[in-house]
């Protein structure tokens, strides 16, 4: 076998490993309002089978379980903190809810997590409630880093 053939054989054997290590992992955040700690299967295995959560349990066991964090009890401060990486008090919104009827909005100069993720080549999508401002187009999710 020639040196070139040996090199091609070697390269073809390691190329799948190189390509798979270069692929970016999928990132999925699931945020649920008003859920108790033991209201889900992977935190409470003795959970009543009527409340079985096999898909979420599987996602948790195959990924990272972030279970050493505290959050605000209101949706707007909790989401703002996750999206900015800052304490709600530092954002000045520790006791507010930005619903459809408010003129308030998360400050536009704040850099949000989906903006950073998209800048690194990811597609970003939001399903569910936003609650970080609706009063101007600049406040909407598609102008704050989400593709859809």
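Q: What amino acid sequence fits the structure above?
A:
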């Amino acid at each position: 076998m020639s040196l070139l053939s040996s090199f091609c054989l070697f390269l073809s054997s390691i190329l799948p490993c190189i390509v798979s290590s270069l692929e970016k992992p999928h990132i999925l955040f699931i945020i649920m309002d008003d859920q108790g700690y033991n209201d889900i299967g992977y935190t409470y295995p003795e959970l009543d089978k009527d409340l079985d959560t096999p898909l979420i349990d599987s996602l948790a066991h195959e990924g990272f379980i972030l279970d050493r964090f505290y959050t605000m009890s209101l949706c707007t401060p909790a989401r703002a903190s996750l999206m900015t990486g800052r304490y709600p008090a530092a954002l000045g919104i520790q006791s507010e809810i930005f619903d459809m009827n408010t003129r308030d909005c998360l400050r536009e100069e704040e850099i949000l997590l989906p903006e950073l993720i998209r800048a690194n080549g990811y597609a970003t999508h939001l399903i569910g409630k936003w609650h970080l401002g609706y009063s101007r187009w600049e406040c909407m999710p598609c102008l704050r880093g989400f593709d859809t």
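Q: And what stands out in the fold?
A: The chain has five helices and no strands.
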